[in-house]
Amino acid sequence: xxRVIICPICKDSDSCFEEMxxxxxxxxxxxxxxxxxxxxRVGSVELVDNMNASPQLVQDLQHHDTNRGIVxxxxxxxxxxxxxxxxxxxxxxxxxxxxxSTQKTNYVWKYAKVVEIxxxxxxxxxxxxxxxxxxxxxVYSKYEFFNACQDMGIIKDLKxxxxxxxxx
Length: 168
Description:
The protein has three helices and 13 strands. By secondary structure, the protein is an alpha+beta fold. The chain folds into two domains: 2-74, no CATH class; 77-152, no CATH class. The chain starts with a strand and ends with a strand.
């Protein structure tokens, strides 16, 4: 069962969903791009595994949801031929030194498409014929995750969903 919830990160009340399964619930906000799972409790094996597999920026941007007792992360969506959506440091707000986890406002969303590699350049890319064009990724503000998903072609209109209940 799916229901709309209020996002604990951006407080959006229309674009954050809880999908309830038999043994757990997963959460996804299409406004701020954060996701979680009831298995991501502090100290859980699932949370540790997720942290170990995540880039430093994703780890730095984690949010503790004290209401549910879980940790939320900005998601990375890799859809193969459609490309990838990922969080990155805001190039307009970069400060000297490493990203500071206390400055959780200094990030943007990027959508990188898959592009063909010209025949004459393939040797530079281990002879692959396609690659992610991260150098020319489209940039979105931290609350434009939905727009990045639309541009990728994985969602059309979130508001068109029927039969959703609203809860916190």
